[in-house]
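Technical note accompanying the year-one report. For the benefit of new consortium partners, we illustrate the data format agreed upon in the data management plan: each record pairs a sequence with a structure-token string. No post-processing was applied to the example shown here.
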Amino acid sequence: MDKARWDKLAAGGGIVGVALFVIAGALYGSPPGVGDDAQSVADFFADNRSRLLGSVFLQGLGVLAILWFVAALVHTMRGAGEERLAAAAFGSFLLAFSIGATAALSRSALAYSVADEGSDLVLPLYHLSVMFDVFVGIFAAGLLAAVAGATLRTGLFPRWWGWLSGLIALWLIVSATAWARDGFWSPTGGVSWLSYLSFMAWLLVTSILLVRRTGREETS
């Protein structure tokens, strides 16, 4: 397979990653609310052990696919002369997914044994995982803001996508204040789900745009 084909496959890594995250989310199901008691949280993780561990495994594969996409994206940004923004984008990605991985591994520990053993750590560990999920939006916003800046400065993608990427970045920052103890503005409330869906949609559309750009460069 020639380099151009590999470049196009890497650009499409975001599409694959989002698909894997969607499957993982369906497998994970509806998690406990942040206001649920320790027994309800323990029962959820103990009763669904294999399913939840499988969900985290698929998320790991999804991150691997997204890593290839981000590498292709950063390479394209550098080729457009935006080396500083490319470095910021990659650094933001590493921070965001490192924190996200910590949240996922915390849930893995709950499903693997902690919830089954009736430990007093169940509720604190679950709350730690959902708070990691909340604050990851700040660092994910750095990736979107860098792409928005590069797009508006160099025409990396259509200008409308640059503006929309900037707006989504602002939304991710705002949604990182979801620390209410219950309701819509809580770590397991509607605001967190909207933030997650916004980020997944951004990954999907940006990956599609990058595939199209890579295809045009291949034929030019």
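Partners are asked to follow this layout when depositing records. The chain has eight helices and no strands.
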